[in-house]
Design goal:
The complex is a heterodimer of chains A (195) and B (469). Chain A is α/β, with parallel strands linked by helices and 195 residues long. Chain A is built from seven helices and seven strands; from the N terminus they run βαβαβαβαβββααα. Chain A has one domain: Aconitase, domain 4, CATH 3.20.19. Chain A is globular. The relative contact order of chain A is 0.18. With 469 residues, chain B is α/β, with parallel strands linked by helices. Chain B has two domains: 259 residues, Aconitase, domain 3 (2-Layer Sandwich); 178 residues, Aconitase, domain 3. In chain B, 32% of the residues lie in helices and 16% in strands. The N and C termini of chain B lie far apart (58 Å). Classes of the chains: A alpha/beta (195), B alpha/beta (469).
């Protein structure tokens, strides 16, 4: 996983709530067996509309998505995270996220930032009035800075540390393989196996 | 202080607990399908890691499989490659697979319970958000992404932070003609698509206790649609009765030991929930969705809502957008909405009891002219049982299509899909834009409402149909 310390980039306002992962990447794109090429599928149904915000020239190259509440609800497809990253996003800001999406994002180094609805609204308005304005998302200091606005956000210490260091969860868990073996030896014998 | 059912199961699976770190939780059963696993297996190969417990892992082909012509290769080359990739991965890593055409094949959340692999008190994960289904047995079951699929394959564990606890208590009995699907749609409309976020929901109360295992699975299945990763119901005699004699259920003295443990899996009287919601079952009626998220639902007797009536600006905007996408006008009675397609199936409502309900309504009746109705069993075993009961004959005689098992039109990764502008009544779980095919419009309904809608051509409950056949 790529480490994340702080990121500065331009923002795209996505004024929609309940942006489910079927919208972020429709199911037809999930048939790929590789981890690449999902950028083309990002919001592919909505991008057919020339007026959709991601199609506007002024938002090309933006790297912070500022969305409405309940972003990433629905399907567990991690492809939604891959699509956002491969399109160029490093951060998604929203008042609330779907649990699985948020979890998937932190595994991949896409930073999900929860901010109050009023702050999200302010950031969206700012990106609309000045699409060139930059925004800084500082994981180290746990704050978002945009012009005069400084907004602290919460993230648990462990996830923050993992993201700052760019650490792979599996490698961390495998350090505790002995604990897993000990646990396994104490499991009840009647638990099922698939064989 | 007492503990909740979910806390008991969670605590029993903590492999390692350390200050400032997530708990490491042991996973008893890992279900795998073709869509969310290929990149996870690639990751194992890249790092030269084996699957730690292939004997606690099982795979099936479900999302991509066609529901006709099973003996021919899959026509879509991309779908075919994905299914073939799963076969290669299962062979390489020694994982049991139920491929297309196999008698054990089916939707991943249908086959686990059917085989008796899903048992009370277990931890179950799958790269699929509807893994919450298995909570119907008192298992702690949730969906995971591909990174976590790889993590479980490699370590049989997951780092977890204990979620918050939420109780949904359904008091009183469901009126006749009101089903588990109506109940869960009403619950989601009440608490909202984000209402369960960060929580495990335990469903309690008389109406929940009275549900069959199939009904409990329908309820727990859609927990994710209320934002909760997991839903649970305490195991009881109904659970034990369902499990007894299934291929992977304990036998003899093991059965007795298991039942003794399972009986302890209930929320203590002095346990505390972070949030509690009470639903009065006696006031419920058949429930349908009108919008593009599962929280946008109403009783069938209501009308399409007026977005202006929503005080919350996000909800108002979402309703405006939903009506535009759905091609609906505020004030239209829901019973006036005509459909082109009726889909019965999915991990929500593709079980034997669902098919019996559908056949019960269709018996002696015809699907309306111009309506296409697909009935897709959740597994090949469900199909076999339905055929043994003669349900397929009733369904086919009505003009509906009787298909092979798979996820099918729930998410339209196989050839079963809506065309732009087409409208369906569907027993599946998501009415998102384009979910059943680009531009398709979905109304989520119960199996009984699906069947009645097929006969009437407009959203309807069985009670709306003429009694004289």
């Amino acid at each position: 996983m790529e480490a994340f310390t702080a990121h500065t980039g331009r923002a795209v306002p996505l004024r929609r709530s309940n942006v489910d992962t079927d919208q972020i990447i429709p199911a037809v794109w999930l048939k790929q067996v590789s981890r690449t090429g999902f950028d083309k599928g990002l919001f592919s149904a909505w991008r057919e509309d020339p007026g959709f915000v991601l199609n506007k020239p002024e938002y090309q190259g933006a790297s912070v998505l500022v969305a409405g509440p309940d972003f990433g609800t629905g399907s567990s497809r991690e492809h939604a995270v891959w699509a956002l990253q491969q399109y160029g996003f490093r951060v998604v800001i929203a008042p609330r996220f779907g649990d699985i999406f948020r979890n998937n994002a932190t595994k991949m180094g896409l930073l999900p930032v929860v901010l109050p609805a009023e702050t999200v609204e302010a950031l969206q308005s700012r990106a609309e009035s000045d699409p060139q304005a930059e925004i800084t998302v500082d994981l180290d200091r746990r704050e978002v800075r945009a012009g005069d606005l400084t907004a602290p956000f919460e993230i648990d210490d462990y996830t923050r540390w993992r993201l700052l260091e760019g650490l792979d969860d599996i490698g961390l868990t495998l350090r505790h393989a002995d604990d897993v073996t000990a646990f396994e030896s104490a499991r009840p014998g009647w638990l099922p196996t698939t064989v | 202080m007492g503990r909740t059912l979910a806390e008991k199961v969670y605590d029993a699976h903590v492999v390692r607990r350390a200050e400032g770190e997530p708990d490491l939780l042991y996973i008893d059963l890992h279900l795998v399908h073709e869509v969310t696993s290929p990149q996870a297996f690639d990751g194992l190969r890249l790092n030269d890691r084996p699957v730690r417990r292939p004997d606690l892992t099982i795979a099936t082909e479900d999302h991509n499989v066609p529901t006709t012509d099973l003996l021919k290769p899959i026509a879509d080359p991309v779908s075919r490659t994905q299914v073939e990739t799963l076969r290669k991965n299962c062979a390489e890593f020694g994982i049991r697979l139920h491929p297309m055409g196999d008698a054990g094949q089916g939707i991943v959340h249908v086959i686990g319970p059917q085989l008796g692999l899903t048992q009370p008190g277990m931890t179950v994960v799958c790269g699929d958000s509807h893994t919450s289904t298995h909570g119907a047995f008192g298992a702690l079951a949730h969906g995971i992404g591909t990174s976590e699929v790889e993590h479980v394959l490699a370590t049989q564990t997951l780092p977890q932070v204990k979620p918050k606890m939420m109780a949904v208590t359904v008091e009183g009995a469901l009126p006749a003609g009101v089903t588990a699907k109506d109940l869960i749609l009403a619950i989601i409309a009440e608490i909202g698509t984000g209402g369960g976020q960060g929580h495990i929901i335990e469903y309690r109360g008389e109406a929940v206790r009275s549900l069959s295992m199939e009904g409990r699975m329908t309820v727990c299945n859609m927990s994710i649609e209320a934002g909760a990763r997991a839903g649970m119901i305490a195991p009881d005699e109904t659970t034990f009765e369902y499990l007894k004699g299934r291929p992977h259920a304990p036998q003899g003295a093991d059965w007795d030991a298991a039942v003794e443990y399972w009986t302890s899996l209930r929320t203590d009287d002095d346990a505390v929930f972070d949030r509690e919601v009470v639903i009065d079952a006696t006031t419920l009626t058949p429930f349908v969705t009108w919008g593009t998220n599962p929280g946008q639902g109403l009783p069938l007797g209501d009308s399409v809502p007026d977005p202006a009536a929503y005080a919350d600006p996000d909800e108002r905007q979402a309703a405006e957008r939903a009506l535009e996408y759905m091609g609906l006008t505020a004030g239209t009675p829901l019973r006036d909405i005509a459909v082109d397609t009726v889909f019965v199936g999915s991990c929500t409502n593709g079980r034997i009891e669902d098919l019996r309900a559908v056949a019960g309504v269709l018996a002696g009746r015809r699907v309306a002219d111009g309506v296409r109705m697909l009935v897709v069993p959740g597994s090949m075993a469900v199909k076999e049982q339905a055929e043994a009961e003669g349900l397929h004959e009733v369904i086919a005689a009505s003009g509906a299509e009787w298909r092979e098992a798979g996820c099918s039109m729930c998410l339209a990764m196989n050839p079963d899909k809506l065309t732009p502008g087409e409208r369906s009544a569907s027993t599946s779980n998501r009415n998102f834009e384009g979910r059943q095919g680009p531009g398709g419009r979905t109304h989520l309904v119960s199996p009984a409402v699906a069947a009645a809608t097929a006969v009437r051509g407009r959203l309807a409950a069985p009670a709306d149909l003429p009694a004289d056949l």
